[in-house]
Amino acid sequence: MTPSRKPFEHSNADAAGSPPPGEPVFLAVGKLRRPHGVHGEIVMDVLTDFPERLTPGKKMLAGPQHMPVQIRSVRGHDQALLIAFQGYDTPEQAGTLRNQILYTSAADQPALQDGEYYHHEILGLQVFDEQGSLLGTLVDILETGANDVYVVRPENGPEILLPAIDAVILEISLEKKAMRVHLLPGLVPPPD
Q1: What are phi and psi of 7, to 5 degrees?
Q2: Domain ranges in the chain with CATH number 2.30.30.240
Q3: 149 forms bridges with which residues in the sheet?
Q4: Rg of the Cα atoms in the chain
Q5: Which residue has the higher pLDDT, 148 or 120?
């Protein structure tokens, strides 16, 4: 099971990473860095698992005001992308987008396979053990080389780190806003 996909930043999220109820969810797909060349391209760090969906003609949102922009071109550049937008034809125009986050609407994201979730979908879930005892709230997801690690914050005490593996993550219910886990020995710190 691959329970979650690369995290996306929310422009309208609370401390647990969840947007306020009823608010649209905007997902970060890249960070615009600096202009490149003389044709209005800008270097973008990729923050999405689906960079192939960044195609000419696609409408995106730039910066905290979610200013609409339309992709004119996109191509690889080292570990990043070079991206250009309609109406931004010079380095000076592209420079106005420097250090902005590029967003898309969560409603525009591709569906995942069963058992896979976007990080923004599971942040904020209540985490329960097999006996139904509340362990806390999923507040962060750490990306490691082998697997993600879920950070669960209890009401009292230190955070619990849960590896996102089949032996630990038993069930995720977005409808119930809950996650059921099996605690391997040593996962929960002993009480003080």
Answers
A1: -70, 155
A2: 124-181
A3: 142, 163
A4: 19
A5: 148
- Sorting pLDDT into bands at 50, 70 and 90, what band is 191? low
Would you state the torsion angle of the CA atoms of residues 15, 21, 173, 170, taken in this order, to the nearest 10 degrees? Answer: 0
Total residue length of the chain: 192
Q: What does pTM read for this prediction?
A: 0.57
120: Cα within 13 Å, side-chain hemisphere: 21
Q: Are 151 and 138 spatial neighbours (Cβ–Cβ below 8 Å)?
A: yes
Reported as a single tens digit per residue, the pLDDT across 61-79 is 999 999 999 999 999 888 8
CATH 2.40.30.60 intervals, the chain: 4-108
pLDDT value at position 68? 94
Residue type, 156: N
pLDDT at 147 over 90: no
Instruction: Classify domain 124-181 at the CATH topology level.
Output: SH3 type barrels. (2.30.30)
CATH of region 4-108:
2.40.30.60
In the predicted model, what is the mean pLDDT of residues 118-140? 91
d(Cα 87, Cα 81) in Å, to the nearest integer?
Answer: 19
Is it the case that residue 19 has pLDDT exceeding 60?
A: no
Q: Which of 184, 190, 192, 177 is nearest to 163 (CA)?
A: 184
Question: Which residues have a Cβ under 8 Å from the Cβ of 88 and sit 6 or more positions away?
Answer: 40, 42, 69, 72, 94, 96, 97
In sequence order, the β-bridge partners of residue 150 are: 141, 162
